[in-house]
Predict the structure.
Amino acid sequence: MVWIESSRSIGANIAESWAKRRYRAHFVSKLTDADAELQETQHWLRRAHAYEYLVAARQDELLARCKAIGRQLGRMIQKSDAFG
């Protein structure tokens, strides 16, 4: 399941960003990478539903979680100075 790989990468990029939080540009760069992986995860979830690997209710649940994570990432990026 491809979305599992990209979803794992979200957390890995967040962990890397935390290690680089003293350097705003690096911190934001890794958070942006995490957001890109989040977008990829959403894409694969939609494809999985389109090809009937996921039922609509499960897809909706997972996409809602993605949306919440995306909002958190967005806030972290907007307030990146607070993490240094």
Remarks:
- DSSP finds three helices and no strands in the chain.
- Residues 2-83 form a domain with the de novo design (two linked rop proteins) fold (CATH 1.20.1440.60).
